[in-house]
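pipeline/complex-builder :: batch 7 item 3
reading input block
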Amino acid sequence: MNIILKSFKQAFSFYKLYFLVWFLSLLAAWPLFSAIQNALAGNLGMTNVPGEWLQNFNLGYLFEIAVNQPSLAWMTTQGVRATAIVFVLVAVLTSAGTFGIFRELSKGPVDGRFLANFLRLSGTFFGRFFRIGLWVVTCVLLALLPLMAGSIGAIIAVPLVSFILINADVTRIRVVENGEKGMTRHFFTTMPFVLRNLGVFIGYYLVSVVTIALGLGLYRLLDNFITPASVSLIFLMVMIQQSLILFRSTMRIQIISMATMLYDKRKPLPVPEEPVIQLPTNDSTLPNPA
Amino acid sequence: MIERVFLLFWTLTCPILAQVLFEKPLSPRIANYDLKAVLLPDAKAIDGSWTLRWQNRSETPVTELQFHLYLNAFKNEKSTFLTESGGRHRAGTYEKGEINWGYVDIRRINIVGGEDLTDKIEYIHPDDDNADDQTVIRIPLSKPVEPGAEIELSCEFYSKLPRAYARTGFGDDDFYFIGQWFPKIGVWQNNNWNCHQFHSNSEFFADFGVYTMELTVPKRFVVGANAVLQNKTSTDSTDTYFYRQEDVIDAVWTAYPDYTEIKQEVNIRGTNHKIEVTYLLAPDREALKERYFLAVDSMFNYYQEWFGSYPYSNLTIVDPPVGSEMTVGGMEYPTLITTGGFFSSKMATELLGLNWLEVVTFHEFAHNYFQSLVATNEFEEPWLDEGFTSYAEHRALERFCGETTGYGNVLGMPFSSLDYHRMSYIPNPRGGTMPTKAWEIPTNFYQTAAYSKPVLVLTTLERLLGTTMMNQVMRTYFENWHFGHPRTEDFIAVVNQVAGRDLSWFFNQYVYGDQTIDLHAGSIINTNFIPDEGWFGDGSEMQFSGGNKEEGSDSTIYRAKVRVYNDGTGTFPTDIVIHFANGDSTVKQWDGSSGLIVYEFHNTPKVTSVAIDPLRKNLLDLNFSNNTRNVEAQSAGISRYTLRFLFWLEYVLQFVMSLF
């Protein structure tokens, strides 16, 4: 419990970090949003359609736009593909920077400018985090296979996915802490440690997941309650939505913080090096025993 | 002794002394079958026989008979059905393997008390040149059936059931759905046999008659049929069910050990008519009972109000088990329908927000009106059954689930049945025409031609005529043609008669033709109207006229031009509403015939907007989003949804961050 409270406290104190993660999310998503916004405004801005959308929106509109505005549909498809690539790159960059700077911040004040340090650490760990990410995606996809057997498959899939995600976080902590290379080896050698402490890790992660779910649930409630049929209500909804993203960023940092504390607490102590006993060689300078 | 003889006689004859259902025949009763079937589960087959009494109601002698052998569509890969479908139908794919093929083998057919016709059987293929197709046979008669006369035939046949992938056959866990299972006589029409091969995109066509069924199955099975159960007898190992149905066009039945049987009595409001609904539900579907009850009660009353009386006293609803829900689910037979409960599960309803149970149930039951009672030719004019049925389904969904949420509220977005049908029509509006033979409609246009475009055409017609008159059209059509075989022109004649005007212009363009219409609002140009200044007139009539000095103010007088285009090829009388800055508006009507119309206004306030067909009467318009034009841009509605999109994009990125 102490670790959970500490991690929440630490996450909220690293305000620069979670504002940065939130800002990077916004930055990565903005080009696609902006392109679609402009294209729709260009095509439909002079019609009654935006006014109708303030009152209601249905699937028919989406489909008619897709059929009758083929260039918009094409642009959206390409934009989604490009955004997917950007998302992966930004995710790796953010993750590498966050784990890196978190580690440094937890040791004490960081010298130099925060953003410069963040970018430096992102660059340092980018390749390694990318490779871990590939392993995670592959393993998660494999872990989801039991779902093909129906909802009963979730009994296997959910714990497996949880384990993979926890294992990935601990691997990242190890990599940043030790500056190690050889990601594949680390990804798999971390598993015994995580397995040994799986109950504790899952318990702690569950607290974060529940907190995130509560946040999302609250958003859904507000979303159902508020019909943004005017500019001021649209603005209010945007504030609520971005607050949730900010909250989600904070929670990700809290999870990293918690995982690091837990790792520090439970990590195997370094095996002390055995003292090397140098036996005397046949040194003629030594006096012969009497 | 006499009592014992009487008792023995009664015991023996009781099962076959079937109770008459209707005092007077409702239909012409041309083809009447006494069917017997023994289910052979190990062989996945039926050992069957029938006696058929067929009447020649035409003015000409009939010198040969033609029969459908529908099950031979599944005999081998060379049948027309398999060739056309490529082994795929709905979501099912044909599974190969000895046990999975199906066929019907006539072992003997003869005139009762007369000639054996078995050796005279000849396979024919009236629709294509596929000599390997064995779904239609002809049997020449030594002695013609004279006008008004009846022929009585007897037949023994063996029906090997296919693994169900297209409406009929066997599924896993001893599930049987047995349709199109016996040699079935064609329809003698216009001095010819109308007896088409079984095609991938076609259904059926048959005459009305009385059917009795004697169905013997091993004891473990629960049995249902599209008929009224009259009796049941048992031996140690088998049960035999005796069914009878009158004035229908087909006989179908099902057997499955795990059905849950539930009954519901539906009272048609304002009448004394009661209908017993029997549900045969696959395991786990009992949870849907209350939903079914509500939907079924409503649909009986809706269709009674809009079309006319359902004359039968029974309806069986079969909800097939998982694995067979797509292959035999969602199919119609007279007084029996199959539904799609699996897709109506909690997940589909609550997560996706789909009203699938209601969609399928309303649709399949509407077929009892359009094709089972108004017995159109599904081979030649599929739109008359699927289209009319989809129209009925759409109206029922609108009333039952709400105007904008007929199909559901998918991921929080209203999804109406009209949205669904426009999705099918808009991308491919010119793929063909509606009254086309099913197998001649391009596969990628079949859904549009048979289902979606007809819904849009009939709903547009309804909005053109008004709902009251459309109800009158549908009721008259049903009244005139139930127990008959109408064609497209018969429906149009009813429309013209009820509407009191000739609507051929509409049907020629959108039913027989493939015309399209897309009215769109072009430019609105307002220019300052400054009248010439000075003294005008002579003598006492001389007046001073001044220019407009306050440019840009609301009171400024303008010359305005509004352009409206038709990007399609068809016409439709459409209201065009033009709004002015002072709040006034004017309504013009244009049918789109010249491709472009320009409305000019002099000496008026500024035109602020134009709206074409604001009440959305014409559902065939290919693009609603270009039907309006404003002089000032508005984007709040766009931002509402794009900002939401931005939020979810960011949320997805947050998730990706957990992976990387």
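note: Chain B has a mean pLDDT of 92.
queue -> next item
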